[in-house]
């Protein structure tokens, strides 16, 4: 299409300037399909097969084959059933998690503006079809490959396609040679790139996989992204397997030397090896993250990238903008100082590209001000034709227009005072204007200046024009009450907030003081000052900085990268095209729901309500999810290592085999497999808010957790060994096995109950029950009934025998001893740590 003229494009695609008719659009959608790039997801069959690729499951399958070879058919079938149950649980959970994620992602689908039936409509981008005329404005993500038919100062960021970070200019009136390379097609806009400046109209000629970006996708394989937590767990599991293999080999050799049956010892060792590592943990973590994303959505935060839930807890810096996030974003003209009142209303009306309630908040405030003093801005616009317009430039911090006034052309400019004062030729007024500007800013007003000049040409460089500075206008944008509380919470949690704004330093400082971001002793500086510092010096400065004013996009980006390079975890908030580099590079890039489609498309999270308190709440929810994952890890490792300890002790003391492989597998499936799912629903513990972010860096399997795991494993092993020996002396071997089997189960129940909260269970009993009722419900309605059924339905498979009611004394004692042991350990920890948290 790049080699065709506009009229030839219309003829080729069989459309008119009124766009497609609705019926024709539907017809074309049936022919060409929907406009989206379908990334191939794993089929349900492949997901199911993947459940058995875990090396631990493979060991279990090997154990079943060995049982078959030794003609232990009951063990063989039981192990296979357990493997299938474990696989089905993982399969259904993964499919359900994938479904929930897809449902959430649908909430953030992009939209496109198209001309249909001669009118402009907003439709889902996937409904754009061949021949649609699309409207392109600053911040829009381009929905498809299209040939430009109109353009005004149009610039496009094509870095996603070409790798070139500098936006390129586009022109509708160019006709290019047919062999022009993709990256030189100046009259074409491409899908997934975005508009950084200007306006355009274009005719769609390629959608979905037929776009340039689609062609790239067809050459790529979709790969699942592992979270840092899952990588850490997987690495730990691999190391653990090596250690356990060594221990198991030692036990196998020792068992054989003791004269034990090779097949029994081998099957036991293999089952023991599998039981020690929580093979279902990655699935549990995924479920926890999905639950977290659903909770966050209820709290006005949409998660687009699931691992972001995990990243929330370790956030150390929040880089936030000011307007709309910390302030109400309800700008109102509070004060106008004008040297020429007759020219002020003209500038407010003409150097303004908005309508009432639609457009830039600052321009809307000017229009409403004119209405309040009975000035008809529409009449002024109709009487004074616009000859040229320069949209607001974030770098130059000004906008301009040329309008015809009584047969003469005038250049009207409005923007930051420090920019316009350099363009001013009425030097005698600058001192008074500067004084008034500072007074307004120090009172928390957002201040802009305005000026004009008569002109007979279109300026090539607006900064080379000299204007008459004719006044100032101060806008009130009051801070949100919620922002004050959010800042207080963040500080208590050790999270540093830096306000990065394009606004004036004095205004930003006044607002930052009110909400508590800025305190005496904090550094404040402007974006232009960043170049004075090396990265090392800048980091030292940022650690005590509260405000960076007059910041450019590259300033925000550098701040984020410097913090990251020094080990900080940075949450970046933004909504405009200028925020995209920082959002994309942040550990947690956050866009606003009302922000540009381009910003939302690359953000990991989207705030559905623009408020600093929402992201602080989200961080707390992230910490809660991390803490629940930590509880699951601790439960699984402590109970599984406890089984290993017990089985190792019986070999060392040359005792008869106390547990059989089928028993170990049963315990793992119906005890761990139920309780770990319940734990992830635990409610928030208040002490989590007081932890410093650095705590979460080594949050999983730290020294504290390892001590807890090892101490309980030793307790569990020793207590059950004593009980096993005592029953052997008093009764039969079969009864000893049955009782110890129950003792192992109830000990794990006790650990699960104690796991619901960090502090002692009996410190606040009602809280202990309220913080996670699902643990108790799952025990009462699933755990206990399953074990009772197993006892009566297939005792032979589990090597169980009849026991008296009096024999239940031992499991009861073990349950109470485990609760007391864990309670004492918690009280010791509480005494030594309560002052720290």
Descriptive notes:
This protein starts with 5 loop residues before the first helix and ends with a helix. It contains 29 helices and 21 strands. The protein has an eight-stranded mixed sheet with strand order 8-21-20-19-9-16-18-17, with helices on both faces. Strands 1, 2, 3, 4, 5, 6 and 7 form a seven-stranded antiparallel sheet that branches. The chain is of the alpha/beta class and 837 residues long. Strand 19, helix 21 and strand 20 (588-592) form a beta-alpha-beta unit.
Widest sheet: strand order? 8-21-20-19-9-16-18-17
The coarse silhouette is elongated
Rg over CA atoms: 34 Å
The biggest sheet, with number of strands, parallel, antiparallel or mixed sense and barrel status, is: 8 strands, mixed
Number of helices: 29
What is the terminal-to-terminal distance? 65 Å
Q: Regarding quaternary structure, how should these chains be classified?
A: single chain
Strand content: 15-25%
Number of strands: 21
Low-confidence segments, given as residue ranges, are: 220-227
Q: What is the helix fraction of residues, given as a range?
A: 40-55%
* Structural class estimated from helices and strands: alpha/beta
Query: How confident overall, as mean pLDDT?
Result: 85
Sum this structure up briefly:
With 837 residues, this protein is α/β, with parallel strands linked by helices. It contains 29 helices and 21 strands.
């Amino acid at each position: 299409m790049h080699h065709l003229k506009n009229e030839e494009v219309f003829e080729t695609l069989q459309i008119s300037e009124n766009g497609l008719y609705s019926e024709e659009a539907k017809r074309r959608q049936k022919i060409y399909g929907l406009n989206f790039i379908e990334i191939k997801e794993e089929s349900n069959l492949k997901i199911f097969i993947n459940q058995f690729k875990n090396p631990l499951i493979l060991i279990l399958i090997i154990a079943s084959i060995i049982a078959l070879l030794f003609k232990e058919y009951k063990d063989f079938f039981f192990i296979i059933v357990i493997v299938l149950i474990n696989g089905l649980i993982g399969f259904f959970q993964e499919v359900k998690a994938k479904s929930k994620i897809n449902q959430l992602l649908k909430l953030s689908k992009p939209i496109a503006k198209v001309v249909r039936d001669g009118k402009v409509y907003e439709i889902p981008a996937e409904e754009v079809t061949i021949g649609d005329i699309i409207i392109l404005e600053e911040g829009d993500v381009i929905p498809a490959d299209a040939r430009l038919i109109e353009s005004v100062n149009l610039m496009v960021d094509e870095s996603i396609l070409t790798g070139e970070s500098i936006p390129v200019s586009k022109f509708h009136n160019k006709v290019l040679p047919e062999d022009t390379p993709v990256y030189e097609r100046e009259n074409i806009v491409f899908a997934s790139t975005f508009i950084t400046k200007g306006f355009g109209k274009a005719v769609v000629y390629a959608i979905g996989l037929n776009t340039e970006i689609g062609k790239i996708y067809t050459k790529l394989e979709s790969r699942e992204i592992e979270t840092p937590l899952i990588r850490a767990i997987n690495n730990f599991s691999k190391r653990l397997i090596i250690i356990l293999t060594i221990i198991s080999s030692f036990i196998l050799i020792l068992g054989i030397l003791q004269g034990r049956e090779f097949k029994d010892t081998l099957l036991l060792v293999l089952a023991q090896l599998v039981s020690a590592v929580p093979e279902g943990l990655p699935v549990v973590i995924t479920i926890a993250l999905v639950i977290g994303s659903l909770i966050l959505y209820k709290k006005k935060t949409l998660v687009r990238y699931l691992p972001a839930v995990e990243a929330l807890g370790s956030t150390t810096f929040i880089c936030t903008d000011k307007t709309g996030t910390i302030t109400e974003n309800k700008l109102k003209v509070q004060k106008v100082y004008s040297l020429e009142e007759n020219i002020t209303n003209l500038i407010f009306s003409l150097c303004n590209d908005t309508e009432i309630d639609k457009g830039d908040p600052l321009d809307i405030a000017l229009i409403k001000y004119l209405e309040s003093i009975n000035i008809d801005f529409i009449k002024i616009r109709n009487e004074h034709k616009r000859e040229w317009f320069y949209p607001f430039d974030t770098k130059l911090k000004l906008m301009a227009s040329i309008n015809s006034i009584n047969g003469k052309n005038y250049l009207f400019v409005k923007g930051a005072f420090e920019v316009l004062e350099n363009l001013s030729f009425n030097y005698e007024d600058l001192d008074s204007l500067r004084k008034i500007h500072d007074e307004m800013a120090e009172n928390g007003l957002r201040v802009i200046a305005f000026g004009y000049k008569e002109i007979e040409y279109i300026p090539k460089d607006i900064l080379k024009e000299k204007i008459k500075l004719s006044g100032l206008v101060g806008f009130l944008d009051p801070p949100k009450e919620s922002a004050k509380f959010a800042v207080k919470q963040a500080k208590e949690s050790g999270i540093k907030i830096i306000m990065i704004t394009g606004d004036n330093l004095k205004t930003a400082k006044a607002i930052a003081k009110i909400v508590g971001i800025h305190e005496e002793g904090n550094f404040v500086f402007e974006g232009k000052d960043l170049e004075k510092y090396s990265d090392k010096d800048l980091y030292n400065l940022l650690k005590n900085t509260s405000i960076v004013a007059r910041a450019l996009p590259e300033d925000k980006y550098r701040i984020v990268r410097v913090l990251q390079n020094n080990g900080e975890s940075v949450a970046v908030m933004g909504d405009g095209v200028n925020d995209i580099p920082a959002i994309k590079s942040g550990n947690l890039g956050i866009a606003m729901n009302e922000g540009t489609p381009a910003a939302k498309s690359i953000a990991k999270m989207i705030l559905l309500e623009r408020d600093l308190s929402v992201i602080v709440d989200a961080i707390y929810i992230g910490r809660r999810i991390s803490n629940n994952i930590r509880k699951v890890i601790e439960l699984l490792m402590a109970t599984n290592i406890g089984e290993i300890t017990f089985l190792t002790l019986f070999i060392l003391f040359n005792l008869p085999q106390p547990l059989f492989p089928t028993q170990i597998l049963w315990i793992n499936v119906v005890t761990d497999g139920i309780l770990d799912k319940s734990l992830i629903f635990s409610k928030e513990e208040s002490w989590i808010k007081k932890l410093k972010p650095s705590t979460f860096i080594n949050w999983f399997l730290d020294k504290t957790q390892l001590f807890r795991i090892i101490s309980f494993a030793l307790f569990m092993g020793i207590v059950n060994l004593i009980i096993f020996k005592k029953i052997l002396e008093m009764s039969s071997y079969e009864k000893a096995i049955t009782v110890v089997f129950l003792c192992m189960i109830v000990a794990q129940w006790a650990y699960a109950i104690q796991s619901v909260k960090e502090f002692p269970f009996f410190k606040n009993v009602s809280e202990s029950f309220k913080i996670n009722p699902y643990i108790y419900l799952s025990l009462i309605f699933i755990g206990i009934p399953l074990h009772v059924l197993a006892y009566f339905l297939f005792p032979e498979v589990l090597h169980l025998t009849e026991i008296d009611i009096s024999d239940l004394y031992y499991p009861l004692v073990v349950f109470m001893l485990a609760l007391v042991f864990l309670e004492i350990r918690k009280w010791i920890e509480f005494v030594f740590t309560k002052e720290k948290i």
